[in-house]
Amino acid sequence: MHELSICQALVDQLEGIAAQHPGKQVAEVYLGIGPLSGVVPQLLNDAFSVARAGSCADAATLHIHESEIIVRCLSCGKQSPATANRLLCSHCGEWQTELVSGDELLLERVELEAFEQSGESSQKYH
Ligand SMILES: [Zn+2]
Prior knowledge:
Blueprint: H1 2-19, E1 24-33, H2 41-51, E2 61-66, E3 69-73, E4 79-82, E5 97-101, E6 105-114
Parallel strand pairs: 1-2
Antiparallel strand pairs: 1-6, 3-4, 3-5
């Protein structure tokens, strides 16, 4: 399953981030998914709940934001939004365009929180 391997890689990445912040766990994960990435957000969400089990992201909430498709026109050089089956320049109607965004799968932001019951007295609260 495509989405599961993506999530396993994502959890590995989150483990790496959490490892740099001792005493913290992953609370919120923000992903940007392009419509052309081939990833189904709902499946990714389901796969994430499987992949995160027992990891530092066990209690994390996954937020998926679907980014828009942007193309750059090879004729007039302008950028414009496009749809998956209509990648044309909205300025001059040219079909010769290149994709600027829309096929990405990006880890946009991760929020960490302290473990609720750490049993440590070293943490200071302001
Ligand atoms: Zn154009």
